[in-house]
Amino acid sequence: MRRPLNRPHGAGAALLWDLLTFEKLMTNKVIHLIYWAGLGMIALGAFGSIGAAVGVAIREPNFFGKLLAVPVLVGGLLVIGALALLWRSFCEFYVAIFKISEDLTALRQDVEAERARVGQRSPQ
Questions:
Q1: Is there a contact between 57 and 120 (Cβ–Cβ < 8 Å)?
Q2: Is 3 a domain residue?
Q3: Burial class of residue 53 (count of CB atoms within 10 Å of its CB; 0-12, 13-18, 19+)
Q4: What is the extent of the structural domain holding 34?
Q5: pLDDT tens across 32-75, in order?
Q6: How many domains does the chain have?
Q7: In sequence order, what DSSP letters do the residues of 63-92 get, joined into one string?
Q8: Dihedral of the alpha carbons of 70, 72, 75, 78, in degrees to the nearest 10
């Protein structure tokens, strides 16, 4: 049976303790920052796709050059949309894995508490 570790008191000490022991996972808080950073990179890609389409339209003087810019724009935006969906699903999968870990930790603590209660009630 695992012995509970003595947790230090105070907010700063508790944060340092959580960082060093992995008893409490901080990934759920961090994944939101990672998600928004990834969406920012995808948005930069969208601006690049729009810029490429505008660049094709400006560079080609005839009508067919401007007509070529439309598929470049649509294709780029479709790829960006697919990337945004994939990024969202990856981040949700990551959060789900860590939620499962937290649930298993809670279940383990409940089982250990139940075993301790049963052990105290039964005389030996």
A1: no
A2: no
A3: buried
A4: 27-121
A5: 899 999 999 999 999 999 998 888 888 888 888 788 888 989 99
A6: 1
A7: HHHHHHHHHHHHHHHHHHHHHHHHHHHHHH
A8: -80
